[in-house]
């Protein structure tokens, strides 16, 4: 399996991830000199059905620094871009330390952890 693509969510609007954690993870990724894609807010992108989510879900091995794996799975599903369960690892900045998230993000291996078998529902967007 090729080295996973890295996606960092800054959780700009919901602000459910501690600011210090987000900043420390982002700083670690920048200092490591690795290629990664940073987005302002996955929740907002999902609400807009941003086509970038389809591109990301189709890229193969993917590590996402954001929040709960179940929530990230739901966001991609809401945008019509389901994640590949077997090749996606979500790093939870809400519950893990910045050091733990950065360590997993920079590790060359992939530990898929997106829950399988759970139904997701399509949330209607307001007109």
Description:
By secondary structure, the chain is of the alpha/beta class. It has a single domain (5-106), classed as 3-Layer(aba) Sandwich (Rossmann fold), CATH 3.40.50. Helices cover 36% and strands 14% of the residues. It is built from five helices and four strands. The chain has a four-stranded parallel beta sheet, with helices on one face.
Number of domains: 1
Quaternary structure type: single chain
Uncertain regions: pLDDT < 50 for 5+ in a row? none
Rough outline: globular
**Number of distinct helices:** 5
- Biggest pleated sheet: 4 strands, parallel
Question: What top-tier CATH class fits best?
Answer: Alpha Beta
Summarize the amount of helix as a percent range. Answer: 25-40%
Radius of gyration of CA atoms, rounded to a whole number: 14 Å
At CATH level 2, the architecture is 3-Layer(aba) Sandwich
**Largest beta sheet: strand ordering:** 2-1-3-4
Portion in strands: 5-15%
CATH topology: Rossmann fold
Derived from helix and strand composition plus strand pairing, the structural class reads alpha/beta
- The ordered H/E elements are EHEHHEHEH
End-to-end C-alpha gap: 42 Å
Secondary structure tally: strands: 4
Q: Please, what is the average pLDDT?
A: 91
Helices, strands, pairings?
Layout: E1 5-9, H1 19-32, E2 37-39, H2 42-47, H3 51-57, E3 62-66, H4 69-78, E4 88-92, H5 98-106
Helix pairs in contact: 1-5
């Amino acid at each position: 399996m090729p080295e996973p693509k890295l996606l960092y969510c800054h959780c700009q609007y919901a602000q459910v991830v501690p600011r210090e954690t987000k900043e420390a993870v982002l700083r670690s990724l920048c200092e490591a000199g690795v290629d990664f894609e940073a987005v302002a807010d996955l929740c907002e992108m999902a609400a807009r059905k941003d086509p970038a989510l389809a591109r990301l879900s189709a890229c193969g091995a993917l590590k996402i620094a954001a929040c709960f794996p179940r929530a990230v799975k739901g966001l991609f599903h809401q945008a019509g871009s389901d994640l590949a369960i077997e090749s996606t690892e979500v790093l939870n900045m809400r519950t893990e330390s910045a050091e733990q998230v950065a360590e997993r993000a920079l590790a060359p291996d992939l530990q898929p952890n997106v829950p399988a078998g759970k139904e997701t529902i399509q949330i209607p967007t307001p007109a």
